[in-house]
Amino acid sequence: MRRIGLCCALALLGAASVALRAEDGGFAATTDARAAVKKAVPKKARKPTGPPAKELFGAAKTPAPMAARAIGFYAKGCLAGGTALPVDGEAWQAMRLSRNRNWGHPALVALVEKLAVEARDKDGWPGLLIGDLSQPRGGPMLTGHASHQVGLDADIWLTPMPDRRLTRQEREDLSATSMLAADKVSVDPKIWTEAHARLLKRAASYPAVERVFVHPAIKKALCDWAPKDGDRSWLKKIRAYWGHHYHFHVRIGCPKGSTGCESQPPPADDGCGKELEHWLALVKPKPAPATPPPAKPTPPKPVITLDQLPADCRAVLASGKEPPVPVMASKPSAAQASTTKKPAAAAVAK
Fold first, then answer.
1. Structure pTM?
2. Least confident among 7-11, 28-32, 114-118, 161-165
3. pLDDT at residue 292, rounded to an integer
């Protein structure tokens, strides 16, 4: 029987299928024969052990005192040598300060500051309200994002900065403004302006930027706004994705010195054709059924443990004066179990 299963797997390998891979925005078509083999011949997965990585990284209040380095992938990694974006700048204000997520790789922080100033001086944008970047040491977050783990992602509100400094409480309470019209597949002309389009174009025009994620309705507005006979190359980087109707998500490529960081390949086209049509169909409100189907329980999201992150993330957590990393993040061997007491549960700041 095992031989038959192996033969089936090899047959699948010969006819490698094209799989769609979602990475917090945009779909990348990849030919992955090995995935087909693994699916045909399932392998018993090792159960993750140890505390959730989000609790360890969420408890870190200061950056790792190490050379700046993005470690791992945008949705599975950490950050060494993080830099804080000042909460108040020449042309920006950071929001939701209680989250302590205004940290990033120095290259990202510098780009956000540059975008804020240039958008004000050249595009008529009054200033940026900055949402989440990363935690001081990156890694999975206690709430919210799946990405933003390596200090290379930034959320920027589409609400213009007011002409005064907001109080800390206002930065917690103020809501970002949605750009959507009532139909949910177009922008509201009373809210959306050409200045929004110029801001997004500038963000996508920087060489360091790999992706700018926006709602499909915003993508459509940009496709319609860009001159048909002019430069539309910047549109390639702006991709439609779920949500992102009140903010846009800027992602830069892997800076020099990164470890295990995977830059995303440039898209093949401007995303204004069939891909956009597909997205608009996905977000278009559907008529409610006469008889609602029975509610299905939502399966729990998989929990990432420290063992599942790049090995260097252990050093990132252990550096400086932050809470120490648990000595054993995986199940001890029989020999270890006979000589080692069961470790106490790690205290985690909520």
1. 0.78
2. 28-32
3. 78
- Whether 325 shows a pLDDT value over 70: the answer reads no
Q: What CATH number belongs to 57-283?
A: 3.30.1380.10
Domain locations in the chain?
9-47, 57-283
> What is the rounded average pLDDT for all residues in the chain?
83
Residue 113 pLDDT > 90, yes or no?
A: yes
As a three-state string, the secondary structure of the chain is CHHHHHHHHHHHHHCCCEEEEECCCCEEEEECHHHHHHHHCCCCCCCCCCCEHHHHHHHCCCCCCCCCEEEEECCEEEEECCEECCCECCCEEECCHHHCCCEECHHHHHHHHHHHHHHHHHHCCCCEEECCCECCCCCCCCCCCCCCCCCCEEEEECCCCCCCCCCHHHHHHCCCCCCECCCCCCECCCCCCHHHHHHHHHHHHCCCEEEEEECHHHHHHHHHHCCCCCCCHHHHHEEECCCCCCEEEEEECCCCCCECCCCCCCCCCCCCCHHHHHHHHHHCCCCCCCCCCCCCCCCCCCCCEHHHCCCHHHHHHHCCCCCCCCCCCCCCCHHHHHHCCCCCCCCCCC
